[in-house]
Amino acid sequence: MATWLFAAPSTGHGILLAPGTEYWLLSGAPQNPNEAVNLLRSVEDARNAGILDVIFFSDACRSAVPGAPLNGVVGGSIFPNRTLAPQSGEVDVFFATRSGNPAREVPEAEATQHYRGLFTDCLLKALRARRLLSQKVAGWHPTSVGHYLAPAQTLSGRTGASGRGGR
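The chain above was modelled as a monomer; its predicted structure follows.
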């Protein structure tokens, strides 16, 4: 059984069709309704993928869909459809924004040179801090950088790096 998997789309577009029905749009969407990732289905399938820990980072909008053609997006899971695994994996999901809202971006002048959302910017700072601290402090644990990820929301509604999406 694999130990962990990091799953994250690049900063991009996400939509909310209804509560619990969110999609990450791939490059062919919405013209191709299958060019999307069904986030909730992917989270559920990740629990049975034979991986102990899966982490999703989503620096994408979670905005409600105004109508066609976005309301025709169906998408799919990024994990295989399997029978129940002997041991269910832990899944964490960190969002750049709350359900129904757009993700924030860095100022336009900066974004045109190095496009990224604010969540990605904070996440990269936290990961750099983790690398530096882990080299200096024995026994350091990644939850020490939770304050960098405070804007993030997990599926369970808790904030920060230590929230669990549940089993």
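Helices lie at 39-47, 108-113, 118-136.
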